[in-house]
Structures
1.
Amino acid sequence: MQELLLHCRPGFEGEAAAEMQELAAEQGIAGYAVAQDGAALVRFVCPQAGDAEQLMQAIPFSHLIFARQWAVGSWLDVDPEDRITPIITACAQGPIASQLWLETADTNDGKSMAALTKKLRAPLERSLTKTRFVRPNKPELPRLHLCFESGQRVFVGWSWADNAAPWPMGIPRLRVPKDAPSRSTLKLEEAWHHFIPRDDWDSRLKAGMTAVDLGAAPGGWTWQLVNRLMNVIAVDNGPMDRKLMDSGQVEHVQADGYLYKPKYTVDWMVCDIVDKPARSSALVSKWIGQRLCREVIINFKLPMKRRYQEVMQCLEHIQDALDEAGVKAEIACKQLYTDREEVTCHVRAISRGY
Ligand SMILES: C[S@@+](CC[C@H](N)C(=O)[O-])C[C@H]1O[C@@H](n2cnc3c(N)ncnc32)[C@H](O)[C@@H]1O
């Protein structure tokens, strides 16, 4: 297993590669990224045997901003006459897995291989369970990823549930709720799935909590908060969805989100205002640094150039501001599947007595 394969949003290969290169250098592991614009996949090749696995173990997946999913493994050329036999042989070189994930790149070329992966699924699953290279009902075992680049070339790799995304290709299957006022409702739901462990939902997204939604209109994010039975202060000069207001859980404040301050510390501040990332990061620093809220989810809209540097700078500014304010916090950032030219940042104050 010589390399890591990373899935990312098409067009963000450079960012995913730069990030991986930097993290590998921090670990003192030699390797190089192979990234082709628009491919939605990045290879990170480690020439030294064992280094790719070591790198994957050393880096928490949650630290990766631009990678949606990853796996450690190698590429295999297959003959269209018989793809199954060489794949099974390659699987024998790696660990036993709990399940099979068939993947492609998130591109039009990738989507055009849906018929092939559909055709291969049943025979592959049969052979893999028969040979016992896949043993269902053993969740502690890794997932086997077969990522088809073409009908002749496939990446055979593995990832571990506690250090990878919980979905094939890192793409969550979320549906827009029927009565949500906008599609962007999914961004907040996906952010929760990504940043908040499922076991914490009942304590951190609890009925009766108070949340402030800056740039709330028409109310997609507010809908998610109301759905968790929270009380929401929705700040926006634009109109809010009528039905959402009828829930009785929403107070609509027509004001500038950058100037608004709650009268007491609230549980959540979420913000989807389209603005410069530097303004958004200053807003996070203010809300957590001045103890206006305990947790934040905010979007950083990215400029066209220097996107990786811009994100790293924003995170650094937040860390510096919170250090200065004497507030300890967990800071995380991810380009979610629902994020286009943007990333989502989560900050949670963890200072005692906050
Ligand atoms: C992308 S939309 C938000 C969509 C919303 N999250 C949803 O799910 O329906 C951005 C909103 O930010 C609001 N906005 C822009 N600048 C603002 C400001 N300074 N203060 C408050 N709201 C602002 C706009 O009026 C717009 O409704």
Note: The mean pLDDT is 96.
2.
Amino acid sequence: MEAWTAKLKTIKTLEERLAREETLEARRDHHAKRPPRPCGITIHTGVGCPLACAYCYIYDMGFPGAASPYRLTPLQMAYAIAANPHVAVGEWGTLVAVGSVTEPFLPETKELAVGYMKAVAAYLGNPIQVSTKMPPPAELADVQKGLDVLISVTDLSGRLEPKAPSPADRLRAGAELLRRGVNVTLFVRPVVPDVTDRELTRLLAYARELGFRRVVFGTLRVTAGIAARLKAFGVDVRPYVKELHPRRQTAINYPKSRVVATAKELGFEVLPASCASNVVAHGQACALCRWGPCGDLKKLRADPEEIREYLEARGYRGAGVAVEGLRIRLNIKISRVDKIFLEQATRLPVKEGAGRN
Ligand code: SF4
Ligand code: SF4
């Protein structure tokens, strides 16, 4: 199976370029262990963030209010991702998302973030997406064909993000990348009741005028601390949540149908999740979760013979493999790691039978 061969080859190539100590450090890192979710694997470019957006969840997760660059070098990060046993490597491999528990383009981490993206693009080739509240750097135009840049905003005023550059500045920098041929998507995240919807048409119309054509709307998730911070900014989320927990995040119950309808009326392609934007930007497809399938489904191919070969290489003998529409059926049970890898490599859900052969 191509993704398996590519993985072994990439690991070997990177081991030839790294010192043994560096490979050991990378293998100990959580990027080399964490199972990707259907929507892909996230790369952390730093620890902490000073921008203090009112709705941000990282502080409840224990991250600090100052940023420091992540400890791995770009080659180590590429190696950690390739060595992660769950991750499929290659152009159609696991989706890679940069910027989930920090802002990647802070002055402290910008160079490293671009370095991570360049190393993953050069050595693995997996589809990369980056989301930002800073004006994205122009050099992103050279990172990867199909790179997806998400410009994250909640409204045009930026009143919940007082320390971040103004949303208009972010959008204009995104438009500059659009002019350079990069895929840039409007990421309205999170949709905050009585904030995002107040001037949504103005925000969307401005983005359209700048050249944005795709949009993703993200749900607000709150803890008790986030709800209290939002309250201090004049936003009351209590009508939209049943319970608030100190650490566990709860998605607010606020229908997005109206914001979606407004975006469609203005001519936007509305995608169901950020990973869908990564898939579409790279001209690919995915059917891994209930929000999809996404992209050009004709391109989703799974060859039962190749899957059997992969399973043999992993020690499963005589497995029955059938590709049934948008899913793979096996007549045996396989390990969680192998199942996730197979799903990542094919972008199709795997259903198992009983009993290992
Ligand atoms: S920029 Fe992102 S990580 Fe930083 S505070 Fe805002 S939401 Fe949190
Ligand atoms: S099917 Fe679509 S929404 Fe679901 S994981 Fe794949 S790209 Fe994301």
Note: The chain has a mean pLDDT of 95.
